[in-house]
Amino acid sequence: MDTPPQFPANNSSKNIRELIVDNTLKKVFHFGAAMEYQKALCKKINGKPRSVFTWAIAEVLAEKPELTVQEFEEIVIKKVAEVTQSHTPKLTAPVDFVSHKIFSYN
Prior knowledge:
- With 106 residues, the chain is of the alpha+beta class.
- It is 48% helix and 12% strand.
- Strand 1 and strand 2 form a beta hairpin.
- Helix 4 (52-63) packs across helix 5.
């Protein structure tokens, strides 16, 4: 993420904390490589310079809390395309992970 996350003490933030702590995203995607690739892709979003890639991930997780890896990949790519038409990241999950839920309130 852009900066280390700060979590309020409510229930939904606990789920986000667990998602990051257990490295689910890192297990599913080559997340570090994607982040390195996207470092230069920053735009002003809501008046602040942001990494388009991390902004899209945060937006997707906030809007749709329970997704399969395949759904997550497709929605993040579309979200990035809302802001920029170039350098769209490829979040290529291994075939055995495509139906794995990456985030769930349950």
